[in-house]
Amino acid sequence: MPDITNIEDLRVLAERRVPRMFYDYCDSGSWTEQTYRANTDHFSKIGIRQRVARNMEGRSTEIKMIGETLKMPVVLAPVGSTGMQHADGEILACRAAHKFGVQFTLSTMSVCSLEDVADNVDNPFWFQLYVMRDREFTGKLIDRAKAVGCTALVLTLDLQILGQRHKDIKNGLSVPPKPTLPVILDLATKWRWGLAMLKTQRRTFRNIVGHVDGVSNTADLAMWASEMFDPKLNWDDIAWIKERWGGPVILKGILDPDDAETAVKYGCEALIVSNHGGRQLDGALSTIEALPGIVEAVGDKIEIHIDSGIRSGQDVLKCMALGAQGTYIGRAFNYGLGAMGEEGVTKALEIIHKELDLSMAFSGETQLSEVGAHTVILPRERAAMALGEG
Q1: CA separation for the pair 378, 374 (Å, rounded)
Q2: Whole-prediction pTM value?
Q3: From the candidates 276, 305, 353, 374, which is the catalytic residue?
Q4: Hey, which of 45, 59, 178, 341 has its CA 20 to 30 A from 225?
């Protein structure tokens, strides 16, 4: 196996080892994928200011996110069907996160259930909630997250309806995969994935199957899920969710400063600047593009986190410099998981941590609390420098 030196190396290996429909599910966006591409492209347009002859000893990437101390400001984001990138994927990713010293967020649409993960890890994790039309089921999900000891609830606001992802339609995405001829031929080349899957019983959305009346097989589940995301979800629902949960709530899916101002009014602990990884509204702002306006609007009123497009420790540093207090990685850890299981998730975290630590050193910073706008060079500043104006 070639040396793994960056997240792209993990992506290439995951593409070889994960069945096409599940790789594409992770590594794609909606419609033309304009926003999906912008999420990463816009990071590359931001420079880091190099400073020299500064004491680089005593560096620390440690930080607190909603009161929890983490080795670096990175949380594993909630990603649906993570257990289809590798058998028992959510369990393995959560273990890797906790061993490394960061936090893990379990998706409502996970393959391993809340109880599966809690029974197989030593520390509490966070849970991401989709609000369903069936409010009784939604309430029970919250209660189950409390029962297994989850320490934060991440409420997703930007998936009231499902964005169209062309690759999922063309691949006939289903969990578990349907045994069509193209799927069978593809699976025949992914023997590592198949052998691991044969050793587990976790092959469907176990937060749902067995917990909803009338949902007992794949066909029932597909029909239920397609009808259950609640288009009527509104801000007033947050009060009910907060009361039922009783702990820290993080609002995910904020891109507009006006929405950020509204989020503050509901007394949640944090918000996540997110466009769902470019998987919902194609043409929406990239998250790093949206971040400064949200920081300006509410940066002194609520903890601000960010996801979408983060592939390196330098991306994390840029987020922190522009006012974020934490970041989330989704595809980056899923590439690692698909490539090498738990070891691959650990490798992804190690890569990002090393890049963050070294980039801080080169920019003359030893503490994340000292990082700020002076740490980066924005596109307009770069343009001025090129013209000899700065």
Answers
A1: 10
A2: 0.95
A3: 276
A4: 341
Q: Are strands 63-65 and 68-70 parallel, antiparallel or unpaired?
A: antiparallel
- End-to-end alpha-carbon separation of the chain, Å? 46
**Chain position carrying tokens 């007394």:** 267
CATH assignment of the domain containing 213: 3.20.20.70
Domain range spanning residue 346? 7-386
**Domain annotation covers residue 325:** yes
How far, in Å, CA of 127 to CA of 294, rounded?
A: 24
d(Cα 388, Cα 385) in Å, to the nearest integer?
Answer: 5
Query: DSSP code of 164?
Result: P
Q: How far apart are CA 89 and CA 110, in angstroms?
A: 9
DSSP result, 283-351? TPPPHHHHHHHHHHHHTTTSEEEE-SS--SHHHHHHHHHTT-S-EEESHHHHHHHHHHHHHHHHHHHHH
Task: Go through 266-294 and write b for each residue having 16 or more CB atoms within 10 A of its CB, e for each that does not.
Answer: bebbbbbbbbbbbbbbbebbbbbbbbbeb
Domain-embedded: residue 57:
yes
The question of whether 374 is a catalytic residue gets the answer no
Q: What is the pLDDT of residues 157-215, one digit of tens each?
A: 998 888 889 888 888 888 888 889 999 999 999 999 999 999 999 999 999 988 887 77
Q: How many domains does the chain have?
A: 1
What one-letter code names the amino acid at 313?
Answer: G
Peptide bond preceding 231 in cis form (omega within 30 of 0): no
**Cα separation, 351 vs 371, whole angstroms:** 20
Q: Which of 98, 128, 363 is nearest to 253 (CA)?
A: 128
Beta bridge partners of 314: none
